[in-house]
Design brief:
Length: 161
């Protein structure tokens, strides 16, 4: 399964449409539909109903990160979160060392505890970001586990009829 970063981002933040002044470009991005005008999204390429979010010369159009660039933005954000988590972790360890500096045992215990917490956080983050496959798998399993019930229900309806 590949991730469509463009559509994923559009689903979360909405489409980005723009009406260029150049008629040649304009007519390629514009569609007249039964529900009104639609403009082509600069990110995912789908047509979105409604007025464009901006207009002007084509070279003034907003630069929209797409595809691989967009994925890199996600990865960079993940690394930033990872760094923040690590920063908090180091601060906690420093605090623990400072508070329990006269008890070597306590420091060790705390260090182990915080390592566990960090591991869990990392797993959760990784799952959230890269666990789409697992999520899909779980979804499929849920669907399959529900199907015998459906079969039973259908059979009951059939028997009653
Ligand atoms: Zn879009």
């Amino acid at each position: 399964m590949t991730i469509d970063w463009d559509r994923r981002t559009c689903a979360r933040r909405g489409h980005v449409t723009y009406a260029p002044d150049e008629p040649r470009l304009r007519e390629r991005l514009y569609a007249d539909t039964a529900l009104g005008t639609a403009w082509r999204c600069l990110r995912c390429g789908d047509f979105a109903l409604g007025d464009p979010h901006g207009e002007g010369p084509a070279d003034r159009a907003p630069l929209v990160p797409r595809g691989k660039g967009l994925r890199d933005v996600f990865v960079l954000r993940f690394l930033a979160v990872e760094r923040a988590v690590r920063g908090v972790f180091i601060a906690l360890v420093a605090l623990a060392v400072w508070r329990f500096s006269n008890s070597k045992d306590a420091v060790h215990r705390l260090f182990d505890e915080y390592l566990d917490v960090l591991a869990v956080l990392c797993i959760l983050l990784a799952k959230r970001l890269f666990g789409l496959r697992g999520g899909h798998h779980a979804f499929e399993q849920e669907r399959h586990s529900a199907s015998p019930l459906e079969v039973e229900e259908t059979a009951a309806v059939g028997a009653r009829a």
